[in-house]
């Protein structure tokens, strides 16, 4: 432990702590635009200056030292910070009124805090072409303040290396190699860059207008579904505490917006489990050479697999993701049952995710119903905006239920939104399929939580099933390398079943989740481990209190198989609920 | 030596040495005259370095060229002496006559225009250097002659 004085307060923190974090431990909030607990300090913005033993230094990248004396604010520091901020603003467009991040922008908040109302510096902002090539995330370098969070997250947390710093000095920009478009780069559309951006430089691709257009077209029949992670995060946009489960209010709001049917992706999650557990049991008991099996619900992970790890394609579960399954069922099973022409049905998915926008047209398999199975995918942030546009008093609206037949779900489905959840759900059902009995304790605490790679072993009918769970795709490489090595040496596999979610914490911390300013855990803004834990808790609580915690006991799912699909993994299931994978180059044109 | 093997050979030489990316890129540019996209891509794979990192380095240092340079490299000295003696005007004249900016090449790849900071003969200021040949006390009026001289030279070679 190191003892120092911050603003004349005695502080004791572990060695290696930054002065900025040490100050936070005694409720002193040093302003910063680049520091974030998920990334290494880059000393990019210059706002966090303090006086250390009389010298002005950046507190984010200065570790504490014994007997250090730190002053975090005085007249000189205040004026210097204001000047730093003015310089940043002189290179940032004054377009707050028409910026999607307005109201949730760290730069805007900082400008307000420092009262930047007088004598601005001349504005030198350069206009750059906006890169919306992915139709999932949108990059506008004009609004970039070069804090470097997105680059750190993309390179070091995710290990994707789509984004980088190009050029130097005033010409510096955040772009893929050689200034190519994101769509031609290794980008997996996870959107973690947008989840960490302090300004409006990287945001989701806006599809709200498309959804309103569908809702206002009287000839269309619109159905909507919400992903598990949406229900525990949407409340933040309306002043609810982090992690509050607001499923009923969200259903009610969607109905008021005009959707003809309100379904739930959780139904699709249960359906995924039936297919995926069946697939795993077949591989485990009859085709051990096709192990390990990887989960496939996360489209950013699918994108990464096809681009970076095509050698693992035979090991990938062929199951589509839950919302794609709901889309396919809405335009076939539901359309049949309700007597509606599927050509007139439009399926809207509300997802915590930016990659889902890419997934809906990923391949021809996404048109298994004969139409595009999911027409539009919007993020939680976009839904919140639409609820506000519709003038719905979300805080006070009464809970409602989802519509059937694609609305019922088990506790196993709802935990899909948190790391470890899909695996837990799959094991519950796989155990039942192999043994004919239910697990005595349907929880696997070893694979919950925020450790980057988690492992557990489950004994099913005398056989040991080795499990790994990775989240934040930078963590998956370790697992893949272990597997490749074992295969090469002909050794026993380290794992049989592996869950991967591209975002740290799983979908609860997806690239499309709310990013509010303020609230009970105000700073640092955006996504933090505390917020990840609270949202995950919201889902695990729902599971623990659910009347049914098992996908295979979902009555509507049982009816679906009896009336329509037949056997899990059967011919119809394969056509509608499964997909194929194709190796693709990391960089477009690479094969030339 | 085929295109593919240049990058492969350079990678084989440098891949085991930490912090050697710059050396590898220097070598690649020495051989090719610039760093082509396909070679950078091949180098990335062979050295197991993300392509994004390679372009971070390539675009950080002015030295590296991403496009094929022109056959005649016109270096206009903008060091203190040459600049004060009016080489800023010479530079503008080259830009105007060639229709390119500093650091660019003409579409026919005949000329490349760049600035250098002092070539070590300030007594001749203002100075321009084309492919090693030095021109002293240059005026804007000399620009068209210099361009014509090199164009003629290349045409005769063909």
Provide an overview of this structure.
The complex is a heterodimer of chains A (592) and B (158). By secondary structure, chain A is α/β, with parallel strands linked by helices. In chain A, 33% of the residues lie in helices and 13% in strands. Chain A has a 5-stranded mixed beta sheet with strand order 2-1-5-3-4. A 4-stranded parallel beta sheet of chain A has the order 11-10-13-14, with helices on both faces. Chain A has a 4-stranded mixed beta sheet with strand order 12-17-16-15, with helices on one face. In chain A, helix 8 (265-286) crosses helix 10 and helix 8 (265-286) packs across helix 14. Chain B is an alpha+beta fold and 158 residues long. Chain B folds into 2 domains: 3-60, no CATH class; 72-157, Glutaredoxin (3-Layer(aba) Sandwich). Chain B is 50% helix and 11% strand. In chain B, helix 5 links the parallel strand 1 (72-77) and strand 2. The longest helix of chain B has 19 residues, at 80-98. In chain B, helix 1 runs antiparallel to helix 2 (21-32). Chain B has helices at 3-14, 21-32, 37-47, 51-60, 80-98, 143-157; strands at 72-77, 111-116, 128-130, 133-135. Chain B contains 6 helices and 4 strands, in the order ααααβαβββα. The interface between A and B is medium-sized, with 18 and 14 residues.
